[in-house]
Amino acid sequence: MKVSGFTFLKNGSTLGYPFVESIRSALPLCDEFIIALGDCDDDTEALLQQINDPKIRIIHTTWNDKMQDRGYVYGQQKMIAHFNCTGDWALYIEGDEVLHEEEIPQIRANMEKYLDDPETEAFYFDFYHFYGRPDQVGISGYRRAPRIIRNSIRSYAPDGLFFVVLEKNKQGRYPKARHAGGNIYHYGHVRNIAKMQEKINQVSQYWNEKPAPFPGYGDIDPAVLRPFTHSHPKVVSQWLKTDAEWDFTPSPDYKLTKRDKKVRLKLKIEDLFGIEISKKHYIDLDK
Fold first, then answer.
1. Rounded to an integer, what distance in angstroms lies between the CA atom of residue 5 and that of residue 32?
2. Do the Cβ atoms of 9 and 81 come closer than 8 Å?
3. 121 versus 203: which is more confidently predicted?
4. At residue 98, does pLDDT exceed 80?
5. What is 20-71 written as a DSSP string?
6. SS3 at position 110
7. Which residues, 6+ apart, have CB-to-CB distance to 228 below 8 Å?
8. Percent of the chain topping pLDDT 90
9. Which CA distances in Å does 152 have to 78, 88, 182, 276, 281?
C-alpha cells in the first residue's frame, strides 16, 4: 500500500500557519508528500526545504487572483497537489491542521484493512477546532470531514474543504467513507491576532470581500465553546508556546446573531436526543 499526502501553501509564515508542524505530523503516515506552493513573499519555501525529507515534492504554482468566487482558487490549488499524488490513498491536510502521533498506527491500519474494498472511497476524521486559546474548542461548525480519498476514483474539490465523486460526467456526490480512526487538530483560530489580521487581509480577495478589522477572538457565543482536556500532538508543542494566542476573554458586548440562535437550538436538540447533526460532506458507511 502506498499513501500520498498533499497540501497547498502560499505565504504560510506571514499568515501564521503551523505548516511545518502540519507536514511533519503527516510524514510518518505517508510515502510521498506533495505541496502545491504558490508564489511567496516570505520564507515559506526555505522552511519547507529545511524539513529535508525525500518524501516531499514541491510543485510551484501561480494563483489566479482573478478567481474571487467563494474561495474556489483554494479548490484549484488543492486539485493541483492531489492530481500529482501517486498513492493508493491520498491524505489532504491543510497548513493549520496537525495529526497526532499516537493515532497514526490506527489510521494506517484502517487504510490497509479497506484497501481492496471498492465501496470504501474515503475516510473521515473527527475535528478539534481550537478557538481563542489552545485549551478550548468551538463546536458550531463541521465536526467531521473526509480527508483521505481513494486515489483511483474520479474525484475533485469544488471547494478547498471537501471532495465530490463523479459517477457520471455531469453528476457528483459525496464519497462513501468510514472513520479514519483519528482526529484532525485544527489550529487556525488560535494563531496570533496580528497574524490572523494579515490572513484576513490577504485571503478576502478570493472571496470577493473587503478586508475587515479583526476584533480578536472574543466576539463569539460562549455557548459553543468547550474545554479541551486531551493532549496536543507533540510536534506542535513549541508552536503553541511561541506562536499561539493564549489571551482570550469573551466580549461582554457581543450580541447573538440569527446564526448563533440557530446553533444554540441545534445544540439543544443534540443534547435532548443524543444525536449529532452537524453538516457532513460524506456518505457514512459506519452507520
1. 6
2. no
3. 121
4. yes
5. HHHHHHHGGG-SEEEEEE---SSSHHHHHHHH--TTEEEEE----TT--STT
6. helix
7. 128, 130, 134, 135, 136, 137
8. 82
9. 17, 7, 23, 31, 19
- Gap between the Cα atoms of 197 and 68, Å rounded: 19
Could you give the percent of the chain with pLDDT greater than 70?
Answer: 100
Alpha helix ranges (H) inside the chain: 19-26, 44-51, 72-82, 104-113, 193-203, 237-242, 258-273
Give ∠ CA 118-112-79 in degrees, rounded to 5.
65
pLDDT tens string 99-145: 999 999 999 999 999 999 999 999 999 999 999 999 999 998 899 99
The CATH class of the 3-189 domain is: alpha beta
Alpha-carbon gap, residue 100 to 280, rounded angstroms: 22
Per-domain boundaries in the chain: 3-189
